[in-house]
From TrEMBL:
This is Uncharacterized protein. It comes from Daucus carota subsp. sativus (Carrot). It comes from the Eukaryota.
Amino acid sequence: MLAMVCKTLDSVKAMESYDKEGLVNKYAGIHRLGTSIRRTIDGRFLVICLEYLSPYVGDCINDDPQKMPDIPKPRSPNGGIPHGFIDDAVNMINIDRENLFNVTRDGYGLRETLFYDLFSHVQVYQTREDMIQAVPWIRNGALSLDGGMIMNKGVYALGDV
C-alpha cells in the first residue's frame, strides 16, 4: 500500500489537481513528478494529513528522550502483564530527533500524530501463542514477532506470511 504523508492540508491540495470534467490532471502535482521520470501514477493512493490527525495528548514516559506515550500495559485480572508482551507498537519505533518535536503547527511530532494514529494500541508479543493467550487483554490489535496478527478484537489474520 502506498501512502504519502503531508504536514498540512495545503500540501495535500498541492498533490493533485483536476480538469473541468473532474479528471486528474496528469501534468500537475505529484503526477507531474511521475511524468518527469517517465512513470505514471495510476489508481488510488492514500495521503495522510498530520494536521488533521487526532494526536496523542496523554503523558509521556518520564525523561524518555523518544517521547514515548505512557500507555497502560495490558493487565490480567491478577494484575500481571500477559506472558510474552513486549510493548505497544507505537513505542517500538525509533524516531530521529528532528521529527520528534514540532512537526505540526501545534507542536506535535511524528510519534504523537502519524505513528499514534497507525499503531496507537497495537500490542506486540514474542510469539503467536503468547498473543493468542492474551486475547482477553488485547484492545485494538496485536502482532507477534513470528508473524501472528490480530487486526482488531475478533478479527484474525491467518495463513502464511
